[in-house]
Specification:
The complex is a heterodimer. Chain A contains eight helices and eight strands; from the N terminus they run αβαβαβααβββαβαβα. Chain A is an alpha/beta fold. In chain A, helix 2 links the parallel strand 1 and strand 2. The chains are: A alpha/beta, B alpha/beta. The interface between A and B is medium-sized, with 36 and 33 residues.
């Protein structure tokens, strides 16, 4: 591997499309930046919580949501930079380890929104290893279509708190922007989940 | 001097009356999740929350995780409270912007350091800035050094945060808690 080559080859939009194909009644949180554009590109859904800020918090938002809605699968889709900003959250999530929570990092080893600077995962940080050492029930590094298929069989199974790093190609795709007002995103999510009286 | 928070540490669930009153206010308000970074002044309340089957208590590595945690709780239909000491407020600033923009309610309960009888000068700058930092981020702040007044302020803040869908904070003066023993 050359110094500039990233590890991943999977297409991020295809990955997210596949991850969400069997989402059913799952609740989905997208970390700010490209994962939010990916989630919007796959198709808007009122059980999506899109982040446009709060970098470093996608995993803890997923934790609070998974604890509150223990009967539903909760999927956090975020980027390597966003996850790296909140590494302590892996310890916090692992300490509670709700069986219905999965955290999937779309890992292009880059800070994609700010000029594609190499992130710590390009310099050797192994996020699934950190998650495993933080008491997650299962962890995976996904590099192939076959491994992605296997991952899709785990993320909605409520079989244990899971973490996966999906190694994607470092490609800057056109932005697909969802609703920008966070209060609207939040209230729509709550109404869909909790009913019209939830506001 | 046998500081109150040391007594709480020694006796576990034998919390101070004001801590019991705050726990009762949590119950009354339907608080279902509590996030905390431990502080000696919160020990009795943390123990009460951990022992309460109606409350899911989560220990955090840093305070801003609690803003995310309780935002997630609210997305899922649960009310939450966040316990920290004053230094932790500094860690929360960007996440308070998130909570403001999205209008996530949560009670933030802060035990003060860096003021009355503080032995550690490293606590002083953040202690002096705590109330202003919260106010700067748009959080409504109440504060008291009076243990008798504290439960009422917590009840007010709980009502307010879930009525306005914005965070509300209550600062607990170091004089009320007792200075940390060195």
């Amino acid at each position: 591997m050359s110094a500039m080559a990233a590890d991943g080859t999977l297409d991020r939009r295809a990955v997210v499309t596949r991850l969400l194909a069997e989402r059913g009644d799952a609740l989905v949180v997208a970390g700010l930046g490209s994962p939010t554009w990916d989630l919007a590109a796959v198709g808007d859904h009122d059980r999506n919580f899109y982040m446009w800020g709060g970098m470093g918090s996608a995993a803890t938002i997923g934790l609070g949501l998974a604890l509150a809605q223990s009967s539903l699968p909760v999927l956090v889709i975020t980027g390597d930079g966003e996850m790296l900003m909140g590494l302590g959250a892996l310890a916090t999530v692992g300490a509670k380890a709700p069986v219905n929570l999965s955290v999937v990092v779309l890992d292009n080893e880059r800070f994609g929104e700010t000029g594609m600077q190499k992130s710590h995962t390009a310099h050797g940080t192994d996020l699934p290893a950190i998650a495993a050492a933080s008491a997650f029930a299962w962890t995976e590094t996904v590099r192939t279509e076959a491994a992605l298929e296997a991952l899709c069989g785990r993320i909605y199974a409520k079989g244990g708190c899971g973490f996966a790093s999906v190694k994607i190609a470092p490609v800057d795709l056109p932005r697909v922007m969802p609703e920008k007002n966070g209060a609207i995103i939040k209230d729509r999510f709550r109404r869909a989940l909790l009913g019209a009286d939830a506001l | 001097m046998n500081a109150p928070h040391d007594a709480a540490v020694e006796t576990g669930l034998d919390a101070m009356p004001w801590q019991r009153a705050i726990h009762a206010a949590f119950t009354e308000a339907g608080i279902a999740q509590v996030g905390y970074v431990p502080d000696a002044g919160h020990t009795g309340l943390i123990n009460l929350c951990e022992a309460d089957n109606a409350i899911d208590a989560t220990v955090l590595t840093t305070e801003e995780e609690g803003v995310g945690l309780l935002a997630g709780a609210w997305l899922g239909g649960q009310r939450g409270a966040l316990l920290m000491q004053s230094s932790g407020v500094g860690n929360c600033v960007n996440m308070l912007a998130f909570a403001q923009h999205c209008r996530f309610p949560m009670l933030i309960l802060v035990t003060m350091r860096g003021e009355w009888e503080e032995f550690n000068p490293w606590q002083e700058p953040m202690g002096r800035a705590t109330q202003a930092a919260l106010s700067l981020m748009g959080v409504v702040v109440r504060r008291t050094d009076d243990a008798d007044a504290l439960p009422g302020l917590v009840e007010e803040a709980l009502t307010e945060t879930f009525a306005r869908n914005l965070p509300s904070a209550v600062l607990i003066g170091q004089k009320l808690i007792g200075a940390k023993k060195w």
